[in-house]
Amino acid sequence: MKGKTLQLTLSYIVIIIVSAIILYPILWVIGSSFNPGNSLSGSSIFPADATLKHYKDLFDLENSNYLIWYWNTLKVCIITMVLSVIMVCLTAYSFSRFRFVGRKNGLMTFLILQMIPNFAALIAIYALANLTGLLDTHLALILVYTGGAIPMNTYLMKGYLDTIPKELDESARMDGAGNFRIFWQIVMPLAKPMIAVVSLFTFIIPFTDFILARVLLRTEEKFTLAVGLYELIADQFGNEFTKFAAGSVMIAIPIAIMFLSLQKYFVSGLTAGGTKG
Amino acid sequence: MGEQESTYTSNHRTKALALSIIPGLGQVYNRQWIKGIVFFILTASFFIAFSDLLQYGFWGLFTLGIDPKFDHSITLLVEGILAVIVTVLGFGIYALNLRDAFKVGKQRDANETPNSVRQQYQNLVGGGFPYLMMTPGFLLLIFVVIFPILFVILLSFTNYDLYHSPPANLVDWIGFQNFIDIFRIPIWRETFFSVLAWTVIWTFGATTLQIGLGIFLAVLMNQKEIKFQKLIRTIFILPWAVPAFVSILVFAGMFNETFGTINNDILSIFGLGNIPWLTNPTYTKIALIMIQTWLGFPFIFAMVTGVLQSIPSELYEAAEVDGATIMQKFRSITLPLVLYATAPILITQYTFNFNNFNVIFLFNGGGPAVAGQNAGGTDILISWIYSLTVSSAQYGKAAAITMILSLIVIVVALWQFKKTKSFQEEDMM
Lengths: 277, 429
Fold this sequence. Notes:
The complex is a heterodimer of chains A (277) and B (429). Chain A is an all-alpha fold and 277 residues long. Chain A has helices spanning 2-33, 53-59, 66-97, 103-113, 122-132, 138-162, 166-174, 179-190, 192-208, 211-216, 225-234, 241-261, 263-276.
């Protein structure tokens, strides 16, 4: 019994240390965001004279693009999500339910494509956007994100659709349902859990991507949050750190809440992606 | 099959196939007028619509332009690739035409009546449905994924850089010169190998640490006696819940040498307040690996927790009866089961970190700069490619390195998927 107590004590010590390492940066940035003054020199983590000034600055539309960046990001996220989900469902359904010429090669191509990050072809994407006049537009960003999301998510979705019994389709066909009806009224409702996963994954891409947005977007009013936040501190690092901190907090909190409430979808989706290939 | 064929009295299939060299003629021969006309019009309009693009495109692709006053090499390259894509699609339609003529001819040889227009329409809708559904996704994929890949492949065989860039100059084909240069010219060779070495250390170091910590904490939290399970688990997931770019930028501030809290508040307690986190490559590397561990372990933790909860407790009870220690139980029951269930995902963690641009770039821009090489001290391949493209305009070389990088990723990934069982399942492919 004594060994058990010792083991538990050690476990709690580890838990406390790890929690401290996790929470410290989070508390530090929250503390910084309430810090008066622009830089952090000579300040403490929990400022005595806390202020909401930096938050107000960010919400001030005249002097700050922060809200515009937020709006841009949400816009790009939502459109990317909707477009990707539609295309992924259509493509995955074809791969799962039909045996057609080119199917095997198509699947193989998807398998290889999902392994190369699409920003590896950065120069090409830039050149193409430049040539088509889509440089510095959100449309270019949305198209690139959507295209990049198709291979991996199609694989995820196909794996899930494969587990829905084909007998359901066949009995519906007996009753005279056409292809599209089977897709829309029989298979898709059953695939809702995986649609949720794909929606989440594709929604989050524009939020986390930095490199493509950085290369494709030129003017400050078009930036997404990742690029904007980077620019906020890259210009003169440290001089506007408290403002940056406030900006970070306002991104981290809503996303973290969304994530924590939907966490099981993320885990199940990523796990399915890995084992199903 | 052979015997069956010799019993045919007619030979419509070869005749139809031969006539189909002019699209539509074979179908007309098979007395499928409408289909024949459709094929013919399709082909004719293909040539009318694309003849300029094809001619100009292929010319541009071969020469990359001859006069810098009129020709823009990169535009020509893009149009050349478009011409190739259009040609491939055209050949696809042509093959379809040949196949169709042959098939219908064969039906006639076997004295079956070819399908009526109505039946053909139904066939098209039925058989064409999957193609129809895939078209939007497929087209997008061609333009934003496949096209860029082709472009980069071709670019790696050109001398496109600051001194050979349109509109002032032309770009030329130079064969494998970029690849040869990377391995021949000392500064490129040394940079390449030092970046590659760090990329490998980074990939294995950071990934193994985050996997190790994730598994360790999951096993730790799996003890039923621990209180506040839900709260602690939520805390452990937090680094995953916060968008990575935010955390990385915050860390960049924390490690900052003038105002960062790591030096000022934490290490100063131990009398170490001046560690050059951002100006000494070795310290930057240590910081990067620690940050990635912080960012990456929660996912492993969450996933392994799921696996642990599915291990039947009888296994452990039986081991306890046999007098196994904690370590023995972990080594012979927990670890094998966890690794078996999660191996493919663990490997994707390695490929992810191999290309983990965000953490390298956002923390310190790949820096600090190092003498004697044209990459920063903590640049990995992908961030080096980025800076070659964006800051030093070495497009050709960057494309060549991209090719090398993609080759590594594809080999690793194919090896991985060969090993997963679902790859071999018949229905899978």
